[in-house]
Amino acid sequence: VGSMGLIDEYLIKYKKIIVKPSMGAQGLGIYQISGDYDKYLIRDNSKKHKADRHRLKKMVDDFIKKGYLVQPYMECRTSMDEPFDFRIHIQKDGQGAWQITRMYARIGARGSILSNISQGGLACQADYFLKVEYKDRASYWKDKLETLSFDIAKHIEEIYMQRFDELGIDLAIDKNDNLWLYEVNSGPQTKYHEPERARNIIAYAKHIANNLKGKSQDVLLYLGETIISGIDTIKEKLSNDDKPLYSTVQNMMDTMECFGILEQRLKSTVPDYERSATCTLSKGVKDQFAKLVIAYEKNKKAEAAKIISYLSEPVLKEWMKGLKEI
User: Fold this and answer.
1) What is the pTM assigned to this prediction?
2) What is the reported pLDDT for 1?
3) Which end of the chain has the least Cβ crowding within 10 Å, N or C?
4) pLDDT mean across residues, the chain
5) Are 269 and 222 within 8 A, CB to CB?
6) What CA–CA distance (Å, rounded) separates 138 from 111?
7) What value does the mean pLDDT take over residues 298-314?
């Protein structure tokens, strides 16, 4: 959530919105907001209260500090007016291919805004749920959910430029028969199907060991080049006087996320990484990213451009050199 302006824009367009933690889990910290001008209704999973614009702005300011996302609220409810969605847990198998380990419906209490099992929801086998809710169209929706899950998994790997071994994909069908993606989790709940999950994990680990030796260096360099390309893109945009700072927010977030992914790979693949010269260089990059975040939060374009220029030349250039020497 960037500002009240974004909240206003979404409320005008969608009437109801969901605000949720960007790094949340188990349905905690999720709010539904509706209303306009100076009369708002704010709901969490169990309570609702009214708020004026001043109170809502204080909440939004708190959201910004903690890192929140804003989404339109979709009416995805059963014939009994219960919120629902589908969790599709997919994993890589012994051939390195995606396959569905478990697909089930999550059904919340009537009147609730959440379907999370951890928030009092119930789990139901997808086949049974689809048969009850969609009758002769059950097989159609099952095929759509499965096909979309595989497409999403493939797309996620393309976006993040790394391999995942498992994903928890949350999908829902609204009252107008539209399919919506709620979120994708890299560490999904597996309490009730841990044996099936373990079999796939072991099989995929063997596949990795047998087929992907010696390729980690290429991946590290590819990620490094992607980060530099992202910084160059931001630098170019900000050199244009007509481009406001907020127009590069997504580029900046994607680039920083890519750096985080690369650093995790370094920690897991480079022996004694924490005491290496590359680690020291990486800390320098992170220090600049931290300053960059503050510049974005304060909407200081000139300051952000200066940091990006510094990142682009001496800092990332030296860091990339170290990366090649690993």
Assistant:
1) 0.60
2) 43
3) C
4) 85
5) no
6) 25
7) 91
| Residues paired with residue 43 on neighbouring β-strands, in sequence order | 32, 48
Give the span between the Cα atoms of 2 and 60, in whole angstroms: 8
d(CA 15, CA 9): 10
Find tokens 């682009």 and name the residue.
312
Strands of the 31-36 sheet, one edge to the other: 48-51, 39-43, 31-36, 16-21, 68-72
Neighbours of 143 (CB within 10 A): 10
* 3-49 pLDDT tens trace: 678 888 889 988 998 888 766 555 677 888 999 878 899 888 668 88
Q: List, for residues 279-293, the tens digit of each pLDDT value.
A: 999 999 999 999 999
Angle, alpha carbons 96-100-104 (nearest 5°): 160
| Residue 285 contacts residue 319 (beta carbons within 8 Å) | yes
Report CA torsion sign: 48, 51, 54, 60: positive
Alpha carbon 256 to its chain centroid, in Å, reads 14
Which residues make beta-bridge pairs with 271? none
> What's 212's DSSP letter?
-
Report the C-alpha gap between 24 and 116 in whole angstroms.
Answer: 12
- Cα(315)–Cα(306) distance, rounded to whole angstroms? 13
Q: Which residues pair with 34 in a beta bridge?
A: 16, 41
Q: Is the dihedral of CA 131, 135, 139, 144 positive or negative?
A: negative
Residue 123 CA to residue 281 CA, distance in Å, equals 47
**Rounded to whole angstroms, what are the CA distances from 313 to 110, 259, 321?**
57, 17, 12
Check: CB of residue 204 under 8 Å from CB of residue 165.
yes
The whole-angstrom separation of Cα 7 and Cα 104 is 32
